[in-house]
Amino acid sequence: MSKTPTSTTADETPAAVPPGDDDLGAAGSQLSTAPTETAVPGSFGGNRTPGPAGRLAWTGREVLGWIRWFWRQLTSMRVALMLLFLLSLGAVPGSLIPQSGTDALKVDAFRKAHTTLAPLYDKLGLFHVYSSVWFSAIYILLFVSLIGCIVPRTWQFVGQLRGRPPGAPKRLTRLPAYTTWRTASSPEEVREAALRILKQRRFRAHLADDAVAAEKGYLREAGNLVFHIALIVMLIAFAWGQLYKTEGNKLIVEGDGFSNTLTQYDDFKSGNLFNDDDLVPFSFNLKKFTGTYERTGPQKGTPRVYRADINYSLGAGGKERKASISPNHPLTVDDARVYLVSHGYAPTVTVRDGKGQVVYHQAVPLLPVDSNVTSQGAIKVLDGYKDPQGKSEQLGFSAFFVPTFAGAGKGTMFSQFPALDFPVLALTGFHGDLGVDAGVPQNVYQLDTKNPNLKQFKDAKGNPLAARLLPGETMTLPNGAGSITFDKDVNEWAGFQIVQQPGTGWALTGALTAIAGLAGSLFIQRRRVWVRAVRGADGATVVEMAGLGRSESAKLPEELGDLAALVHDKAPAQADADPDREPDAGTPVPAEGAEEK
């Protein structure tokens, strides 16, 4: 038995064979479904015949030829990888530069801060990268490239699966891996044994004339096709999700609820093809928020339990169910997900007029400004209040709340711990017109103290009226204007983000499938094996085995050696074979440099 040295190439073409060999024929073809590329286009029009008709025909052939050439370039793997890289590169500005579809306020602030760059960014579409012309062009070209690459290769691969491995070439000695020996077994016995052994090794094998042809590793090309199909699925899922996505935020105080309609959101943004009817019909109530924190050590103040207990229902008449939402465990309702994103306190206050009548009683959510939930906000009494002269007015209070006060004389008003250990509410009062009826949008958590129609309450000494209240304490407004009480009830609120983005399941499936397909295309080798058994002039059977792989692999000669050993066990070499004997005219010539047993 003898073997030749391995001779393979490192690219995606079949293993190299000595120059001048043209005997492989179909045996060396179709190891890959990659299309043949034209490196440099030539003149596609050919010879031009005289006259207008000849010129027109030549122009048509030239234009058609160039179109075909550009199509081949667009659908090549090289261009597809370039487009995929450009798509990834184009997404970088969308992560670094504020986007108008995500945060218009940050975009306005960027324009004011960068008066030179902003006009340039506007022209390049960098404030709306994902809907810009250039990003859409890359996206569409990549989509077309992948489809144009996959469709013909798929049909070609299906044809290969339906066909049989090609017959053996005339000279097996020209193949990269080769071995031969003489045996006393008949050619038919050798071929039958080889056919049986190859099928046991999961080769697709059949008898072709005087040889057995076998092939293995079809999953390599299948993995390649699966990888590209998965990329298309991911692109479709990404586009679908971006066009139909919705994202909104809602702050809910304990005891209050939310219904998934546009009017219920504090802020809301959506994709270009979103329709109001696409919102999942569900509602929920925040029953209780539970937050516990680390009391000692270097992680003091770190949340340990951060949970919102809710009751929710799907549809108008849906059954009410209980659920808990935490930062890593959102609530999933059909295509919508509800995330817990923030938390704070809502102290309950009661406002009375000069006659002692309650004109306002509500838990007021205040926004945290640090990790210890030091909070600030505004209390606005819009209706029902009248001053001592009986004139209708509006009241406003700037509020500053700390759940754990450091204590009087400590030199700080900031909270020392996020839990309600020592709650204190600091208030400053205003009266007049808050400006909410002017039609100009206002921040509900801030007072416009620069409003000329809004006046600050003064104490008896003419100083601005301010007080620091403990739960149950009251600040009396001057001149019989009424009072405001910090009630003993301090509710908690939770901020929720409701996201509805269809196609995420498909995108995840596409990503996992792409990884599996890529692994198959990288680690599976497509290879062919032939076993030829013919009768020599001296009556002995000459057995030749050879292998051909699609790309360079040290396993091909090793695998061929294992197969040859199994066939050799069924058809052992003749003990009296003369290694120096000249082969007969009808006997195939072993490879140069081969060693014989």
Give an overview in words:
The structure is a single chain. 28% of the residues lie in helices and 27% in strands. It has helices spanning 51-74, 77-96, 104-113, 117-124, 133-162, 187-200, 218-244, 504-523, 555-570, and strands at 177-183, 204-208, 211-216, 246-253, 257-259, 267-270, 282-293, 303-314, 321-325, 331-333, 336-352, 358-363, 367-368, 375-381, 394-402, 424-432, 454-456, 466-469, 474-477, 482-500, 527-535, 541-549. α2 packs antiparallel against α5 and α5 (133-162) packs antiparallel against α7 (218-244). The protein is elongated.
Give me some keywords for this one.
9 helices; 28% helix; alpha+beta; 22 strands; disordered N terminus
What's the layout of helices and strands?
Layout: H1 51-74, H2 77-96, H3 104-113, H4 117-124, H5 133-162, E1 177-183, H6 187-200, E2 204-208, E3 211-216, H7 218-244, E4 246-253, E5 257-259, E6 267-270, E7 282-293, E8 303-314, E9 321-325, E10 331-333, E11 336-352, E12 358-363, E13 367-368, E14 375-381, E15 394-402, E16 424-432, E17 454-456, E18 466-469, E19 474-477, E20 482-500, H8 504-523, E21 527-535, E22 541-549, H9 555-570
Antiparallel strand pairs: 1-22, 2-3, 3-21, 4-6, 4-20, 5-7, 7-8, 8-9, 10-11, 11-12, 11-20, 13-14, 14-15, 15-16, 16-17, 16-18, 19-20, 21-22
Helix pairs in contact: 2-5, 5-7, 6-9, 7-8
Describe the global form. elongated
The total strand number stands at: 22
Approximate helicity band: 25-40%
- Share of residues in strands: 25-35%
- Estimate the mean pLDDT confidence: 85
Report the span from N to C terminus: 5 Å
Helix/strand/pairing class, anyone?
alpha+beta
User: Total helix count?
Assistant: 9
Can you tell me the residue ranges where pLDDT is under 50 for at least 5 consecutive residues? Answer: 1-22, 37-42, 582-597
Task: Output the radius of gyration.
Answer: 40 Å
The major pleated sheet works out as:
7 strands, antiparallel
